[in-house]
Structure formats: structure tokens, C-alpha cells
């Protein structure tokens, strides 16, 4: 069985950055939804999105 090629520092850094971005994405979408709801004066929807954001 062949051994896996050791990862370079650049590859490790790139993978870590992608993991962080994947984690941020749902929170960013919820934040955008909150602002859209507030701008349209729909505060109940904004509160529900805020609740989702807090439970992420």
C-alpha cells in the first residue's frame, strides 16, 4: 500500500481557510436575511432569522 503524500504548508493553510469559510456561510446567509426583513419592516421574520442565527 502506498503512503499518502505529505501535505505542504500551503495546502494545509488552504484547507483550513476553506473549512472556516464553510462554517461562516450559513451565518452570513442568516445575517443577510435579517437585514432584508428589517429593511422591509417585517420584524417577526427578522426575529425568527435572528433566533436561527443564535442557534447555529
UniProtKB/TrEMBL annotation:
<feature type="compositionally biased region" description="Basic residues">
    <location>
        <begin position="1"/>
        <end position="12"/>
    </location>
</feature>
<feature type="region of interest" description="Disordered">
    <location>
        <begin position="1"/>
        <end position="29"/>
    </location>
</feature>
<feature type="compositionally biased region" description="Basic and acidic residues">
    <location>
        <begin position="13"/>
        <end position="28"/>
    </location>
</feature>
<protein>
    <submittedName>
        <fullName>Uncharacterized protein</fullName>
    </submittedName>
</protein>
